[in-house]
Amino acid sequence: MQRHRVAVIGAGFGGLFAIKALRNANVDITLINGTAYHLFQPLLYQVATGVLSEGEIAPPIREVLRNQDNVDVKLGWAQDVDTENKIITVAGPGIDYTVEYDTLIVAAGASQSYFGNDHFSDNAPGMKSIDDALELRAKIFGAFEIADLQTDPEAQERWLTFVVVGAGPTGVEMAGQIAELAHRNLPGQYKHIDPRKARIILIDAVGAVLNTFGDHLSTRALQQLHRLGVEVELNTKVVNVDRTGIEVESERGHQRIPSMTKVWAAGVAAPPLARKIAAAAGAETDRAGRIMVNPDLTVPGHPEIFVLGDMMNLTDPSTGRPLPGVAQVAMQGGKYAAQTIKGRLKRKPAGEPFKYFDKGSMATISRFSAVASIGSKIRLSGFLAWVMWLVVHVFYLVGFKNRFTTVLHWAVSFLGRGRSERVATEQQAFARKAMYEYGNPFERARLADAPPADEVSVTDADRLSENGRVPAKTK
Q: Which PANTHER family does the UniProt entry name for this protein (predicted)?
């Protein structure tokens, strides 16, 4: 007799916690993920600034789940879901396939949002993937190297100006780490520039940094950023980004900031798959493309489909606001979905609606300085908050090896003046643009063995320019 089939899209916090909670359940699980690793996204900025290696925050999925026999891991990008026949269409590397399910858990995370200006991404990478972090690492460290070669003071200043867009946790942490590089780690290593003269500019359209942390912690974070030498521009809207600078509008009017290194840390949106599932299921989405779910995290009219984390929109009855797109929501949602599935298999009555327990929010600003909001009353800042941040992040890193090497690298970076992962290559800096020009290599290889051009279907030809991941630029 065939066991109950659970398909999980996404190996982030939500998907992984759901799978682990189903370890002893009488189910067969198929995990579909676009990468072969689980990404600990909160530490991406430390990869981008040379503190950690990518392997320390991205353990292989098969290694993480090696002791769980009821899981089949498949590499690929879920393209569509047939909610009537319960079939997922997946595009793997050079091969398409389908996965059938009885219960579906959708936890594919979020993508970077440029608020309708997707062309900004050409010159301002986001912070959502290992590829993003490695590209930014190459750009950040490369900027100091190229600045050292310049004889034109204006060109030198452009290369030593770093602009971070978005004053949420990721943007604040990124700006703080670049400032530490410039003022603490790199001085004395260059003959022709003083890294301490670098400008680090943090921009946000709202009027506060760490806007969701409350006025007290927001003010403390702003003060610490100023002490680090970060220029904070609030109530400032980005209107254009190009290769050599960024244009903004504020109360002072229109302004251009010459800069060769821009980082986009503002805004997230659900991936296109969310809208496809919503359309197929007859569900609604919000402005960011997230699916409006029932209190039990299922899609209305489809109790067999759970949506978790950044892909769902669910109002928290205690606050009257949608649940935040943070790791804890995904983790708790994954456990809840697994418990619900196990209850259904045992034919138990439906349980209580999902209830999110807010364990608080944390953000580092620099070494020995962080802010932490815990519950409705506890607000911490400074060294104690930083220690709490370290402990929490080490706890949630997957695998003993990752925790051990991460602590060692933190000691090198925070107690000493070194950066363990400063190596950056041209490939990391330019691979994204090269792939954009070249097109998806798997599809090019597939078409190399295809029939002659006049026999290739429109669908096959379109794979070179579409394929959902890396389009080929029209010449």
A: EXTERNAL NADH-UBIQUINONE OXIDOREDUCTASE 1, MITOCHONDRIAL-RELATED (PTHR43706:SF47), NADH DEHYDROGENASE (PTHR43706)
The alpha helices in 282-363, defined as continuous H runs, are: 327-345
Structure tokens at 158: 């452009």
CA distance 122 to 373: 35
How many other C-beta atoms can be found within 10 angstroms of the C-beta atom of residue 391?
Answer: 10
The Cα–Cα gap between 463 and 459 comes to 7
Give the Cα-Cα-Cα angle 61, 53, 30 (nearest 5 degrees): 10
Take residue 295 and report the two structure tokens written for it: 């209190």
Look at residue 469 in the predicted model and tell me its pLDDT: 44
Q: Cα(50)–Cα(124) distance, rounded to whole angstroms?
A: 19
pLDDT of residue 388: 86
- Given a contact cutoff of 8 angstroms between Cβ atoms, the answer to whether 16 and 334 are in contact is yes
SS3 category, 417: coil
Measured CA to CA, the distance from residue 69 to residue 351 in angstroms comes to 28
The question of whether 173 is a catalytic residue gets the answer yes
Residue 438 and residue 464 in contact, taking contact as beta carbons nearer than 8 Å: no
Q: Is the pLDDT of residue 6 over 70?
A: yes
Q: How many CB atoms lie within 10 A of CB 99?
A: 22
In contact, 165 and 124? CB cutoff 8 Å: yes
Q: Which residue type sits at 97?
A: Y
Q: Name the catalytic one among 56, 135, 173, 443.
A: 173
- The pTM for the full model equals 0.87
Q: Quick check: 247 and 255 in contact, CB under 8 A?
A: yes
